[in-house]
Amino acid sequence: MSEPSLNLSFELLEKGEVLPVMEEFYSLQGEGYHTGKAAYFIRIGGCDVGCYWCDVKESWNPDLHPLISVDEIVSRADAVPARAVVITGGEPLNHSMNYLCRKLKEKGIATFLETSGSQPLSGEWDWICLSPKIKFPPLQEIYNKASEIKVIIRDSSDFEWAEKNAIKCSSNCKLYLQPEWSSRKTAVPLIVEYISKHPEWQLSLQAH
Ligand code: SF4
Questions:
Q1: Residue 90 Cα, ligand 1 centroid: separation in angstroms?
Q2: Do residues 129 and 115 touch, judged by C-beta distance below 8 A?
Q3: pLDDT tens digits for the chain (208 residues)?
Q4: What's the DSSP call for residue 32?
């Protein structure tokens, strides 16, 4: 027979009332459309996409991160001056985001999602940043709702992948190319040249 407290935790996790949280911090957005704006960041544990260049591999296993009460997270987010929260990971959509978004909205806090788009959408979002990954491509429902796509570029072969993604997005979706961090010295000149010829794209440089 399983422990009652384990059953309760599982039930709360299913409802999204607790979430495995890797870290929370108040900072400036360092990538994409909202670069330079202050926000409260919540990094959710759990991702099965498996990008080999991932710089947060410690986020992959959700069991390594404590289950935190969403009500507590929201009260910390509500205590900072900025009225925006960025939910990142890991892959946040591995868990239900409905309760978290509802509670943030009740406080008048804008909700920004960073996702690979590999899982069905939950939650109510003011901004969705879709960063598609070739190993686990996004679902069409996420392309339809993406506010921006941010394609990671390591070499010139990634531009074809970027265009394949762009045609699946809505016409008002912002298009960003961002160098993969460890390849940035060679990738940035390639991106600059590409954007010169394809000005519908913009450069996103990690500022953090
Ligand atoms: Fe890492 Fe993001 Fe890829 Fe998941 S989707 S493996 S968190 S880079």
A1: 6
A2: yes
A3: 556 677 778 899 999 999 999 999 999 999 999 999 999 999 999 999 999 889 899 999 999 999 999 999 999 999 999 999 999 999 999 999 999 999 999 999 999 999 999 999 999 999 999 999 999 999 999 999 999 999 999 999 999 999 999 999 999 999 999 999 899 999 999 999 999 999 999 999 987 6
A4: S
CA 45 – ligand 1 centroid, Å = 11
Residues 35, 203: Cα–Cα separation, whole Å = 11
Ligand 1 surroundings by CB, under 6 angstroms: 47, 49-51, 54, 56, 59, 89-91, 116, 133
Rounded to whole angstroms, what are the CA distances from 116 to 3, 23, 93, 129, 145? 34, 19, 9, 9, 13
Residue among 133, 175, 174 at smallest CA distance from 152:
133
CA distances (Å), origin 144, targets 85, 114, 117, 156, 166: 22, 15, 11, 26, 11
Instruction: Please name the amino acid found at residue 77.
Output: A
Atom 2 of ligand 1, nearest CA residue = 90
Distance (Å, rounded) from C-alpha 178 to C-alpha 24?
Answer: 24
